[in-house]
Structure formats: C-alpha cells, structure tokens
Design a protein that fits this description.
Shape: rod-shaped
Structural class: mainly alpha
Order of helices and strands: HHH
Oligomer: single chain
Number of helices: 3
Strand content: under 5%
Length: 108
C-alpha cells in the first residue's frame, strides 16, 4: 500500500555501497548511521502492519454491526406490524412470534 511512496527499504539501505575517495567519510560512522536508519525503517514497517491489521479488524466489526442493525430493524418492523392489528388473539400472536423466530434465527 505504501510501497509506491517509499523509495528505500531497509534491505536497500543495508546493501548500498558507497564509493570511496581520498577525502571520503569514515566507513564506521556511515555504517552506524545506516544501522539507525535501517532500524527506523523496520519499526516503520511494523507500525504500518499493526495499523493495517487494526484497520482490517475495524472493517470486520463495522460489517458485523451493520448486519446486526439490519436484523434489528427487520425485527422492529415486524413487531410494529403485529402491534398495529387490533383483533389479535393468542393463537394468532403465537403463530406470528413463531414466524418471526423462524425468520430471525432460521429453521432449526
């Protein structure tokens, strides 16, 4: 996801070879600095992975909650329909509740 925006990986930094001349940098100092940069890149990769995992979990939770809302709305609408009818007897109510349970929980 972020690979198109990041130019160097920790492996690229580790394997980079510097050219030397007579007035070049001290190799040990460059290596120490690059070690710090590599560590930062590796930590950055771990942070991104943690966020990606968290994002995936949140998306799954969001889907589950939307399904629950749909189920509850359907149940609420069915209950409103039952409440609107004035001439309900016990047998009719039991039949409707049974149908609602079958609809909500499925045939078992």
């Amino acid at each position: 996801m972020y690979q198109d925006r990041i130019l160097l990986s920790s492996k690229d930094i580790l394997e980079h070879e510097f050219k030397f001349d007579t007035r070049g940098y001290r190799p040990q100092e460059v290596d120490k600095y690059l070690d710090v940069i590599i560590h930062d890149y590796e930590e950055f990769d771990r942070i991104i992975q943690d966020y990606e995992n968290e994002k995936k979990e949140l998306i799954e939770d969001n889907i589950r909650l939307k399904q629950e809302i749909r189920r509850l709305r359907t149940q609420m609408e069915a209950l409103k329909d039952v409440a609107k009818e004035p001439n309900n007897n016990n047998a009719d109510l039991l039949r409707r509740v049974s149908n609602l349970e079958k609809f909500i929980y499925g045939d078992k």
